[in-house]
Amino acid sequence: MDENVILTMRGITKSFPGVLALDNASLKLRKGEIHALMGENGAGKSTLIKVLTGIYPFEGGEIEMEGVEGQAINHSVQEAQERGIATVYQEVNLCPNLSVAENLFIGREPRTKCNTIDWKKMNSSAREIMKNLDIPVDVTMNLENYSVAIQQMVAIARAVDMECRILILDEPTSSLDDNEVEKLFRLMRDLKNKGVAILFVTHFLEQVYAVCDRITVLRNGQFAGEYTVAEMPRVKLVAAMLGKDLDDLASIKAEGSDTVRKDVVVDAKGLSHKGTIKPFDFVIHKGEVVGLTGLLGSGRSEMARCIYGADRAQTGTLTMNGKELKAKAPIDSINAGMGYLPDDRKADGLIGDLSVKENIYLALQARKGMFHPLSPSEQNALADKFIELLQIKTASRETPVNQLSGGNQQKVILARWLATDPELLILDEPTRGIDIGTKTEIQKLILKLAAEGKSVIFISSEIEEMLRTCSRLCVMRDGSKVGELDHDLTQNTVMTAIAGQGKEGEQ
Amino acid sequence: MKNIQKITRMKLFFPLFCLLLVLLINVVKDPGFFQISVKNGVLYGRLIDVLNRGSEVAILAVGQTLVVAVSAGTDISVGSVMSLSACFTTMLLAGYGVNTTTTIVMPMALGLLAGILMGGLCGAFNGALVSKLRIQPMVATLILFTAARAIGLLLCNNQITYIRYEPYKYLGNFIPGCPIPTPIFVTIVVIVIIMLVLKKSALGTFIQSVGINSRAARLLGINSDFLCFLCYVICGLCAGVAGMIASSRIYCADSNNIGLNYEMDAILAVALGGNSLAGGRFNMAGSIIGAYTIQAITTTLLAMGVSTDQAPVVKAIIVILIVVVQSPVFKSWVETKKNRRRAEIKEAV
Amino acid sequence: MKKKKVGLAGNNVLLLITVLLFIGMYVIGCIIYANKGFGHFQTFLNILITNAGLICVACGMTCVMLTGGIDISVGSLIAMDCMILAVAMGRQGLPCIPTVMLVLVIGIVFGLVQGYLVGYLGIQPFIVTMAGMFFGRGMTAVICTDQVSITQQENAMFYSWANAKITLPAFLGYTNNKGKTMVPFIRPTVLIALVVVVAIWFMLKYTKFGRSLYAIGGNEQTARMLGLNVRRTKLLAYVLSSFLCSIGGVLYCLNTMAGSVQQAKGFEMDAIASSVIGGTLLTGGVGNVLGSLVGVLINGTITTLVNSNGKLLSSWANIATAALLCFFIILQSIFAKLKDGRK
């Protein structure tokens, strides 16, 4: 219907073992527009991009592209490139040890008559490209000498020079400062005026409102809607991303769970970790559940890591039960009574080839020390207790943990920390990728722990979940703590706080 | 059919299978392989020979297994470290620059201990490079692979120091009155110690955790760096012990020949033991069985008239075969083959 | 702008340290061993002559290391090459040129196998080339366990190659204490080695294959995404390394005129050390053969210094090389950490 449509993806379905990553997802791109693709973690944004660029095969749906007969299904990155689809990723996908010019021309270097690389021509063409795009670089310098922003622009320049018609920018701004972001935006607007369709993936709402024309929102692998930026207020966008479909477990929060705040467990003052989280203060009391809320990349996970000592804090002090805790390594925090469930289960949590039993007793063993091993019967008893308590579905306690389903793996890690009987438990996205039943169990467990006098720091992308479990919320935005909410906790207040006031004040 | 599958899936199936295969070949070739006789009050026989000569490899395999498990790399300096430890001990016992001696200038136990500690020191050097500076294990150990022998030569003043002091021969040969070769006892002691440590402490589980996912291991309170360091030290100590035995066998320190090509045997023992050279889960018993398998292969080759210099050809080929079979590319190739066959069967039905 | 400066530092400082180290060592040698003729130009040429083989091998090693791999089979391959040459020409009386060809072909085949295992099957280069190392050494012993030498009677042509002198202008020479002018000379092996250096330098700079080596070392994943054939490039890198190693083997044999099982022991160490000292990063992606050439010269100077002393044991040279390698590895590691910290 639209003359300008260059790409249409309809009803895309893609599943990984045990997970339906994309379920009837759609996307429509038009020439000369900047189109934001939004959604929370696990919404399927990167999967959709990978399907489009030929990294993943997919099961159902169709892709149409202007100028391509029939289905425009790409089988490899090269094929996508030939059709004019270029992608620039968050981690720059160029070779830092080569010069800027080489990075622009690698794999398609200009040749001399003797079929050797024509450096002169390569450098001069590169200089011209950079000049046209107004990127101030010396093309003979190695790429690693330049900031990430420039590197990203070089990647974009490469894509443009290869005559791309669709440019996908996958979270290009997450490591850039404001100035650099502005430069990038200028480049994006230039390209837009030249008729390139840009698909822009980002977590930063402000940026969406600064450059984008249209927004497509994905939720749980499904298409949740396409909007024009002008007609979409911020809060509505956040609501669309997070989804409002309250499940049937409306209120499991016990009455009167507003705990009396005494007995400070952890008191952090001015903690920070260079490059990830700016200095923040944080207090948690006995029996309290505090949520860290904010969009992905807002610093919520980083704050948790900093409190736990997974990233050693460079400034500030942390006192636990009145004693100063200087954690050099996580073991110090564990000994002081902390437990930490990381958000990346696979990379940071599971010891994949080890059994369920071993995964459960490891943290307790680490706390007891290497030379005070738990006896086999203690190990078995511990494992059985938690398999029973958390209803972990496993063939036996000796089953390698990577053979379990995601939800059960998560329970194993939760069991690992419960086994150490921590005073403060930090849970980063404990319910991600888990079925609704297990989610509720975990939420109930959190409340039960709090009732027993334990403190919990809870992070989740789902606001309902936070509202149900937390008595206080810390709001995070752009790597710093921007406020706390402790009464009148509703969807709307939280979402407004997360969305924040726009710089350009469009609301 | 199901029973067979059960057996083949057992952890020790692969190493035991290899060992039996090698033994079988030997028995077919030489029916007298298992014969054990008593000559001059000590035991003789090919089997005893394998157990005796295999001691060094078995001890090295113990250390190497830990290193492979924790760092997904191998310590290729063990052979050279054996040589250095031996040279250090003989230097201490005989005195610097002495060519041949019948008396020793220092209590023997002290000298042996010093040699073993020298091995530990080398291990600490390797461990520091790997765990603190994050240098690829093989590059880090390559330094001592060449340097240790050279240092050994220096300690021995560029000559072969002979210690013709009777008790010094006990360790690598026989203690008077005992019909069983001493190295077998030493190996048993080493194995028992390591097994006890693994059983009575959480070391084994911790090492595997670090080898499988060192980031997660750190987050749950394990000191990954220190464990990695520790494994290299243990490996060095094992090399030291092996060096003592090797030196005592020939009651001298021949810097150029002690421990020659043993790094290969040790790595092969680990691989034959069913352990992945990519680290993680390990099986100590498998490695030890692997070590004796290697020795049986070596003994067989020697009996066939292959010289010690030539034997590595066969071992190199075996190593390559094992790593090829372990490689993900090969595994997925087998998997697709299997699937295709299954599909064909289905179609046929 | 500030970032630029620091970035420049990393790689160039390493190379600068290397060049300064070489000059420093050489000057110290000239001062200490002035009475032994260390300062003569011929001493420098002798370093080139004795290390002609090592130069070739280091070039190949550099190519492999650029991809982030390593090849520790080179020492054994040289021993095997020398043994083949010695047995074929010294014992069997085969003509010279076909034998040399045979050795070069064997090098290529050797490299093909190693390259396939690394590139296409994705096995760690260290394990593959370690097996190659033991295989090569073992095969040497299989061919012959004795020390075999090539003499003039057996192969006059090879002998004449080995003893050919290329004299340089006389003003570079010196007058010895008997009043005779010593004209400086090099051997053809040096020319071959230098041709190899120039050829590899050219290849690394001006061909797609050369640039691909750098790209793979910089980021293998990216190189694949940019459309380079990573597997084939890796395969070729190992073939090149083994081929150059075989050329190096022939040159080495021209120096020693013999084959023995123990020959070229620890040669892989010298080659890797030369490369690393010359500024090649163990992690790949950075380095060039000119640096490696300087690395070889440093290596040669160490040996010459140790030999000039006369009293020192020759194993000191090995220890010094190992220590130097260790020092440079630590330097690289520190630079890498600084770089990470900056980001």
Question: Which secondary structure elements does this structure contain, and how are they paired or packed?
Answer:
The complex is a heterotrimer of chains A (507), B (349) and C (343).
Chain A: E1 5-16, E2 19-30, E3 34-38, H1 45-52, E4 60-65, H2 77-82, E5 85-88, H3 100-105, H4 119-132, H5 148-161, E6 166-170, H6 178-193, E7 197-201, H7 205-211, E8 214-219, E9 222-228, H8 234-242, E10 264-273, E11 277-285, E12 289-293, H9 300-308, E13 315-320, E14 323-324, H10 330-336, E15 338-341, H11 345-349, H12 356-368, H13 376-389, H14 406-419, E16 424-428, H15 436-451, E17 455-459, H16 463-469, E18 472-477, E19 480-485, H17 491-499
Parallel strand pairs in A: 3-7, 3-8, 5-6, 6-7, 12-17, 12-18, 15-16, 16-17
Antiparallel strand pairs in A: 1-2, 1-4, 8-9, 10-11, 10-13, 13-14, 18-19
Helix pairs in contact in A: 5-6, 8-17, 12-13, 12-14
Chain B: H1 2-9, H2 13-29, E1 37-39, E2 42-44, H3 46-53, H4 55-71, H5 78-94, E3 100-101, H6 108-132, H7 137-155, E4 161-163, H8 166-170, H9 182-200, H10 203-212, H11 214-219, H12 224-249, E5 252-253, H13 262-272, H14 284-303, H15 311-326, H16 328-348
Parallel strand pairs in B: 3-4
Antiparallel strand pairs in B: 1-2, 4-5
Helix pairs in contact in B: 2-14, 3-14, 4-9, 4-10, 4-12, 4-13, 4-14, 5-6, 5-7, 5-12, 6-7, 6-12, 10-12, 13-14, 13-15
Chain C: H1 2-32, H2 41-50, H3 52-66, H4 74-91, H5 96-120, H6 125-143, E1 148-149, H7 156-163, E2 166-167, E3 174-175, E4 181-182, E5 185-186, H8 188-206, H9 208-218, H10 220-225, H11 230-256, E6 258-259, H12 267-277, H13 289-309, H14 315-342
Antiparallel strand pairs in C: 1-6, 2-5, 3-4
